Amino acid sequence: MDSRTWTLFAAVTLGAALSVAGARAESVPNLNKTPIVETTKGKVQGFIRNGVLEFRGIPYGASTAGERRWTLPQEPQAWADVLPTMHFKPACAQAARYNLTERSDSEDCLHLNVSRPYSGAPIAADKRPVIFWIHGGAFIGGSSSLYRLDRLARQTGAVIVSANYRLGVFGFMPHPSFEADHNGGYALEDQRLALRWVKRNIAAFGGDPENVTLAGESAGGASVCMHLITPEATTGLFHKAIVQSAACVFQLRNAKDRNSFGEAVAKKAGCDNPAMALTCMRGKDAQELIAAADAVSAGDLMAMAPVYGTKTLPRPGREALETGNFVKVPILNGGTRNELRLYVAYDVQAGKSYTAENLPEVLKALYGQNGEAVAKEYPVSGFSSAPAALGSIMSDFRPDIGINHCMSLDSTKLLSRHVPVYHMDFADPKVPVLGAAMPLQPDPKFELGPVHSSELIYYFPHFSNTTQMSAPDLPPASQALADRMVASWSNFIRTGVPQARAIPKWELYVKKGLAMRFEPGKTALFNPAREYRCAFWKKLYPDGFSR
Asked: Which helix (H) or strand (E) holds 212?
């Protein structure tokens, strides 16, 4: 496997797996006297596990197979009998990748899951805050089933909802034969249908439909951005937002310009007659289309990123944020300190070597004529190794990927002109990475620390990007940090302020440009723009920053 392929894998670290119970032992579900909830489409019966009432695999959309491919999602048919919801449903269609994530062929995949604390009291009488979690996966993979929601439900006291949505070629790829109003936006429309399901149904589960926090990480965080910047479609569907490791200002591509990508995928799949392309592609096997898209996108990490210029997504993020044309809600924004060291780690696992001698050429390939200036600003001697240096440089700023500190901070800056925004930075140097955010072997043998997606096990214990749920337990100091992070979420979803008892006073970013760094024994406010050298990067890439 070449380094470019492994780099693509780093962007898919949020997983792509079928929804089945993992290898880690779980308590035996209790089905005796389990509450039955009536939704607008029929009754569902959940089960009790670890003190939480859970419902898995509730349909919120109809099948999108065959003639329903590349059309707006439709509500499912009603059902007459009580629907048992003990088991997750399959993930949306995706490829098996890198001996880690699992294949799914399902296009009847628009299902969601609900978890909430349970004490035996009537649940509909509650009015709990709601978290709607959007999974990541580089827009081509992932599954809601990989994120077990029970701990988050118990600790926050909230109703937690997660949902599957169409991926890759079926959810984000544009093509000139698709309906122009929603071209390349079907996955986002799936998510919005699920949010409307929450609006209509969550009260029956004890949730407050007027207090919904939309949250996601990586591709999930980017999806949150897409809903923020489309107020004409999403106003009233959520009331707070959490964006992790995604920059709302990242420069998206225009749907019309990106149609050529879809045409190339169709041609690769043998559908090169423009007049018959849609009919031809609807007759193709799902994996054949996925393989064609993989071949055409070779090396482009943002190949399936959302496109703008449609009713689904009328405008790019920077335009929306600069003009204030977005959903006005409190926002918690941020990421991990060593985001893109994960990309480097996969390159090293694949046999790529980064040294002090070859780093200048690597930087030239990444940053073009600015490579020399970057090498001078970030001497290898200031880091524990050349791979660590490269990962930190890219984490500070990389213009072609929307996962970096300075883009994220620019998003916070623009959002802060209109709404309350708090910025956070996950920085636990002892976070388990091998066997959690990436496979256990081979060891890349350089300092990883808080890389992209590594914070997920602090919210979703044992998250490993796989159905095995095999990530290790957190060490005591890290677990204490996880408790503080969840406490911050808990207060944010209730009040719009993430202040928790065990952390210093958390100021709005707009006051002094400060963010909260979460690190065991060192949780404190700091100046992220200074630490991540955003002034330096703005001089090199003035068009990539706001004024």
From this structure: strand 207-217
25 vs 22, 28, 50, 126, 152, CA distance in Å? Answer: 8, 9, 12, 30, 18
Q: Are 388 and 447 in contact (CB under 8 A)?
A: yes
Q: Are residues 246 and 395 in the same domain?
A: no
Q: Which domain holds residue 155?
A: 3-255+304-329
Cα–Cα distance, 118 to 153 (Å, whole number): 10
Flag whether 197 is in a domain.
Answer: yes
Using alpha carbons, list the distances in angstroms from residue 539 to 360, 401, 545: 19, 18, 9
Helix (H) or strand (E) holding 536: helix 534-540
Task: Kindly state the average pLDDT of the residues 330-344.
Answer: 97
Tell me the one-letter amino acid at 342.
L
Whole-number average pLDDT of the chain: 92
Helices (H), 180-254: 186-201, 219-228, 231-234
Q: Which amino acid is at 343?
A: Y
User: 445 or 7: whose pLDDT is higher?
Assistant: 445
Tokens of 399: 């213009």
Nearest partner of 494 among 244, 239, 197, 243, judged by Cα: 239
Using alpha carbons, list the distances in angstroms from residue 324 to 457, 545, 547: 34, 16, 15
Hey, what's the torsion of the CAs at 100, 105, 106, 112, to 10 degrees?
10
d(CA 109, CA 286): 13
Backbone angles phi, psi at 62, to 5 degrees: -80, 170
Q: What is the pLDDT of residue 29?
A: 53
Q: At 32, is the pLDDT very low, low, confident or very high (cuts 50, 70, 90)?
A: low
Say if residue 493 is in the same domain as residue 538.
yes
Q: What is the CATH number of the domain that holds 46?
A: 3.40.50.1820
> Within a 13 Å sphere around the CA of 67, how many CA atoms are in the beta-carbon half?
0
35 and 18 housed in the same domain: yes
Domain match, 144 and 181 both: yes
For residue 34, being part of any structural domain is answered with: yes
- Antiparallel, parallel or unpaired: β 111-117 and 159-163: antiparallel
What is the value of pTM for the model shown?
A: 0.94
Tell me, yes or no, whether 313 and 420 share the same domain. no
Are 197 and 284 within 8 A, CB to CB?
no
Give the Cα separation of 110 and 527 in Å (integer). 42
State whether 321 and 338 are in the same domain: no
Contacts of 323 (CB under 8 A, 6+ apart): none
Tokens describing residue 88 = 């997750």
